[in-house]
Amino acid sequence: MVDKTEMLDELEKGPWPSFVSQIKEQAEKNPISRDLLRQLEQSYKDKKLYWRHGGVVGVWGYGSGMIGRYSARPDLFPGVAEFHTVRLNNPSGWFYNTKSLRQMCDIWEKYGSGLLYMHGMTGDILLLGTTTENLQPCFDELSSEASFDLGGSGPGIRTISCCVGPARCEWACYDTLDVTYDLTMTFQSEMHRPSLPHKFKIKCSGCPNDCVGAILRSDLPIIGTWRDTIQIDQEAVSEYINGGFDIVSYVINRCPTQCMRLTEKELGINDRECSRCMHCINVLPKALRPGKERGATILIGGKTQLVEGTIISSVLIPFIKLTPPYQEIKDLVNKIWDFWGEYARGRERVGEFIQRIGLGDFLEGMGIEPNPYMVAHPRENPHIKFEEYYREGD
Amino acid sequence: MEASPKARKLDIGPPDYRQFLHPVVKENYGQWKYHENLRPGVLVHVSETGAEIYTVRAGSPRLVNIDFVRRICDLADRYADGFLRFTSRNNIEFMLPNKENIDPLIAELEGMGIPVGGTGKIIHNMLHSQGWIHCHTPASADASGITKSVMDELYEYFTAKELPHRVKIAFACCTACCGGIFWSDIAILALHRRPPRVNHDYVWRVCEIPTTLASCPVTAIKPTYVDGKTSVTIDEDKCVYCGNCYSICSACEIIDPVNDVLSIWAGGKLANARSEPMLAKLVVPSLPSNPPRWPEVVSAVKNIVEVYAQNARKYERLGEWINRIGWPRFFELTGFEFTKYHIDDFKHAGQTYKKSVQLKF
To answer: How near does any CA of chain B get to the CA of A372, in Å?
Structure first.
């Protein structure tokens, strides 16, 4: 049924679950998967891919969510002559019930390769491989019967993702799942009909541990934090100490701001000096918790390598309280899109745009006052672009 | 196009997550008090109300099939009342209100060849780009195959063996870096090392010249005419082989099985714990791409993990450990050769030079 796959067979060995076994299982009954396996074996033999460059596909009413892909050798691998991806917007926090997943699988069995990524790097379910003809009926069933919708692609807002948040984490400083869902529903049109200079990603992490990597993986990270004091349960601290845990070595000496001290078995924190790094809370989860006045820090500009280099997001709004309907965030997003959309070059991410024009001018465009929290340190060069000067006689 | 748009549902958005929360999760939403890592892959979260929920985390190869998803759903039906979730690193999480279900669930998962682990101070599931499975731009290396090979070799560090702190590994098959590699403790990145070959018969038909020129970060692309038709030339001295022009103009062929290599990077992190987020740095500029098992790459990654395991202090991430001991010591301990290519020569390169005499001999 399937040609020999000597190279790929090697990747069925070993203890880690094998993607090759996943493809092979489908290849027994699905011609798309069968030819994917054959083409992949050819790639392994020749050390090169066999996909043609690009291709635009879509469904009625949408300008995103589907990625066109065509085999470079449809003569050899007709099953993958067309091998398009369908991006499905994941529910907040990647929570599912089995009924919903089974419905999605049944539809994908009918229309596609039966292969999928759980999940893609931005967060979507990626349904891997179907024909142009099947895209519309597949989408129609996914949306009308399984209640799934497409995620983002192209130069627009992409699928938003978030950490597990208050659903199962005591450190969540705001409701990451609700913010994600609310913003996703608010920006449906912008996600499905992209019209920005380049992609725009938002990720929501509930605390500075940043479990979805918002600071580097998104243009607009929303990272939970608190403004008051770390909550301490002194009894639980004593339990750690009595249990033999070396609080001095592993907590106090590792505190980056040296703001902790241990006196007569009581732990003290100078919260004014605390930088909210989370280390002590991570190590002593039973004894320490983030404060009660919780909210988020909003950053701006994160992106990976292509083309001007990787950028770690930087602080835009040091602290904001997040309560429904999150209007401040929505206004901010719209303001960024207006300003960046007006002045950016084509395919210029907002982080690259800020590097080009300077954060100062960007803040001015946003109507946000400069603040020392936004910089690691003030400038080190004297080429200040003063905007006004007097002329003789003024 | 033929069907009436009215019959279609547009912009309904993703399913509402609230219907997917287990009743115990729903009742204790926002009320969790603390959690413990009971063993690799098993967590307990305790609520203010005294309620407990046990999480079993299982690794997946990310690329799965519908029958696999159905089998996972069977387990969720049997042990977790029909609810499950996935993590940002492609793990599957079952949340069990009943402690008694932990061991039988783990036994079933292990029986299916699905490892339980990936929590706490161990190796977490690898992230990776699409590779030869579905992408049109990767350098000559496959994402899924390298991920499988590395995770096979480091399997016991995912399921059991404790390290000084967590280690996150990622793979990307070109500088688009879909694997999000630069914030990983250890990253593998496929690179080109030869300028694109321009197909002049093709440029005028498929490429927009101004956007192709603008795509180059080092202005190496210039417009030209070849046989009376518009085309581009590439200044080979300037080109840094990033491949961005290829993503704009398919006539600038960059993929090259003879020359493409794999590089290794180390020391990235993005949590704010202790130190601020930092990017990974180059440790090995070029290793050969040898499918199907990429032994050179696997052994370099394992070397870093083992040297880190032996030398770092508890709660010290790989990058924090390197910052403490210094890069010269890192190269000495790992045995990797330090070359001219390790020294940055792109924009702002000078910021990475050593500007003090604080040297450890």
So the answer is: 17
Give the CATH number, domain containing residue B69.
3.30.70.3340
Which tens digit of pLDDT belongs to each residue from A323-378? 999 999 999 999 999 999 999 998 899 999 999 999 999 999 999 999 999 999 99
Domain ranges of chain A: 6-144, 161-226+294-374, 231-289
Q: Determine phi and psi for A137, rounding to 5 degrees.
A: -65, -35
CA distance A388 to A375: 24
| Other CB atoms within 10 A of residue A284 CB | 22
**Is A168 in contact with B30 (Cβ distance < 8 A)?**
no
Q: Are B136 and B53 part of one and the same domain?
A: no
Count of CB contacts below 8 A, A vs B? 344
The candidate with the shortest Cα–Cα distance to A88, out of A146, A6, A30, is: A146
SS3 A167: helix
- Please indicate whether, in this complex, the C-beta atoms of A19 and B292 are within 8 angstroms of each other: no
User: Which residues from B are below 8 Å from A119, CB to CB?
Assistant: 62, 86, 90
Contact B65 A114 (CB under 8 A): yes
Domain A161-226+294-374 is classified in which CATH homologous superfamily? Answer: Sulfite Reductase Hemoprotein, domain 1 (3.30.413.10)
| CB contact B178 to A (< 8 Å) | yes
Average pLDDT over every residue of B194-221: 94
Sequential DSSP letters for A339-374: HHHHHPPTT--HHHHHHHH-HHHHHHHHT----GGG
Where is the domain boundary, B85, B111, B137?
A: B111
Question: Which residues in chain B have Cβ-Cβ distances shorter than 8 Å to A25?
Answer: 65, 67-68
Question: Any chain A CB within 8 A of the CB of B152?
Answer: yes
The verdict on a CB contact (< 8 Å) between B63 and A307 is no
Contact residues, chain A, for B138 at CB < 8 Å: 49
Encode pLDDT of A162-210 as tens digits: 999 999 999 999 999 999 999 999 999 999 999 999 999 999 999 999 9
- Overall fold of domain A231-289: Alpha-Beta Plaits (3.30.70)
B175 at the A interface (CB within 8 A)? yes
Which residue range is the domain that position B225 belongs to?
197-251
ipTM above 0.90, yes or no: yes
Rg value, chain A, Cα: 25
